[in-house]
Design goal:
Length: about 140
């Protein structure tokens, strides 16, 4: 159980680092512009990778949310709740991947910074929710 808490704490830290990175990138316009205006071939490859990642994340989100909904009303436990939370996490990560793809497609740093902030806030928030579920589950035992 301690390893699970450590791993979830690491996800929260990673999310907060992504938010900090997005904030720094937003303040440093020249660096963000340089990343957004890479050579066209590199940008097109990044757009394709991000679009495929978004589709995969969305498929995973649908699978997890559907699995969480399978529990009869009133019978959902912490595992079902965690599955639903992870499903929502994957939806937001898919949105972040599409925002990044849009940034490289348009050659604009704004969607790239938004993608970092969306992903960072989502990972930090859902990591905290999963920590709460883990701690509550452990306290109930």
């Amino acid at each position: 159980m301690s390893r699970r808490l450590d791993l979830r704490g690491a996800w929260v830290a990673a999310g907060l680092l992504a938010v900090a990175g997005g904030t720094v990138a937003g303040w440093n316009g020249q660096a963000a512009q340089a990343i957004a205006t890479l050579p066209a071939l590199v940008r097109s490859a990044l757009v394709a990778v991000m679009a495929l990642a978004a589709l995969r994340l969305l498929a995973e989100a649908i699978a997890r949310i559907e699995a969480g909904r399978a529990a009869p009303p009133g019978a959902a436990d912490a595992r079902d709740l965690a599955s639903l939370i992870r499903g929502v996490r994957f939806v937001f990560l898919a949105v972040a991947a599409l925002a990044a793809a849009g940034g490289w497609l348009l050659g604009s740093p704004v969607p790239l910074v938004a993608a970092l902030l969306i992903a960072g806030v989502d990972v930090a928030e859902t990591g905290l929710l999963l920590l709460v579920i883990t701690i509550r589950g452990r306290a109930a035992e």
